[in-house]
Task: inverse folding
């Protein structure tokens, strides 16, 4: 009887052990599946998140992604050019899965550092260079956004004298200014302003507010009646000069009409909330491939015009019609680029 009981006990123990092993095995598989919040992500910004322009726009994308996708992306702001490479390395060394950086100026550092950290994905927003399987830049077709701005400017100008200021003369900046100037000048000429023209300057800075004010004031004194600036905080100085001189400003990237709606009569807002959710979802899905630039533009609805009372319904309708043409592929942007 004792032997029989011992055999029964052994059998029960064997079944129990098999159950526990199976349960443990199942638990191990489940714990290996990462949720969105398990990925270590960070966004590197070249300026402050309250600049009402490029950095604020990117930060809004981060906030939306965290709220929508359940990610816990962090950020670091005001990172200077001399610190780009060391900042990338710092986060890669700490095991971050996805490192994003806002601006074409990060391309070189991202591609250089990525070689040493194959398990980390490097994603430059506005990036144009991808030289590795873990380098996956995302690029908003900013020249399509500047096209929208030009549709506004071409109708707003009274004398057809347009002035533009860019941060630095990189390829992306040149292309967006090429499109803006071409479209704005052509529209002014269609309105009967035969002497319409555009002048351009580069600040070679993203954060010199005083320089932006000085440059804009000079351009306005030389006849410009509509300013267009894409240079982060430099643009804030330009808006100050535009207000003081009593001419008009077309905002870009963020909604700059809130600064002074009588000066910044309209803006083209980059809907980076949509853009970031799109990009980070691709990362989570495993489709944010390296060795490729991932692009989005008017067709993906990431650019939106914002108007003040200074922009008539007629002009708004013309802008909408122009955007629809672009969405249908009826606008040859490449033909507008001065340097292909």
Result:
């Amino acid at each position: 009887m004792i032997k029989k009981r011992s055999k029964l006990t052994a059998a029960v123990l064997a079944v129990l052990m098999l159950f526990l092993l199976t349960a443990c095995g199942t638990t191990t598989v489940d714990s290996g599946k990462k949720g969105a919040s398990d990925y270590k992500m960070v966004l590197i910004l070249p300026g402050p998140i309250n600049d009402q322009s490029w950095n604020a726009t990117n930060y809004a994308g981060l906030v939306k992604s965290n709220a929508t996708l359940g990610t816990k992306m962090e950020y670091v702001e005001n990172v200077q050019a001399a610190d780009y490479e060391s900042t990338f390395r710092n986060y890669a060394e700490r095991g971050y899965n996805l490192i994003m950086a806002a601006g074409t100026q990060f391309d070189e550092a991202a591609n250089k550092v990525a070689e040493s950290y194959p398990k980390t994905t490097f994603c430059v927003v506005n990036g144009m260079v991808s030289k590795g399987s873990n380098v996956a830049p995302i690029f908003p077709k900013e020249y399509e956004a500047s096209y929208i701005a030009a549709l506004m400017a071409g109708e707003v100008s009274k004398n057809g004298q347009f002035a533009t200021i860019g941060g630095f003369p990189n390829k992306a900046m040149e292309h967006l200014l090429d499109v803006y100037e071409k479209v704005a000048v052509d529209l002014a000429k269609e309105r009967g302003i035969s002497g319409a023209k555009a002048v351009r300057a580069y600040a070679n800075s993203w954060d010199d507010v005083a320089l932006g004010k000085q440059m804009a004031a000079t351009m306005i004194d030389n006849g410009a009646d509509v300013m267009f600036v894409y240079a982060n905080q430099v643009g804030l100085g330009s808006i100050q000069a535009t207000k003081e001189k009593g001419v008009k400003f077309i905002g870009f990237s963020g909604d700059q009409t809130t600064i002074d709606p009588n000066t910044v009569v309209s803006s083209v807002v980059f809907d980076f909330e949509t853009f970031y959710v799109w990009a980070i979802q691709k990362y989570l899905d495993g489709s944010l491939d390296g060795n490729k630039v991932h692009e989005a533009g008017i067709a993906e609805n990431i650019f939106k015009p914002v108007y003040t009372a200074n922009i008539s319904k007629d002009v708004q309708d013309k802008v909408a019609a122009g955007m629809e043409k672009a969405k249908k592929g009826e606008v040859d942007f490449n033909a507008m680029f001065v340097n292909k």
About this structure: The domain at 41-136+274-298 is CATH 3.40.50.2300 (Rossmann fold). DSSP finds ten helices and twelve strands in the chain. The mean pLDDT is 91.
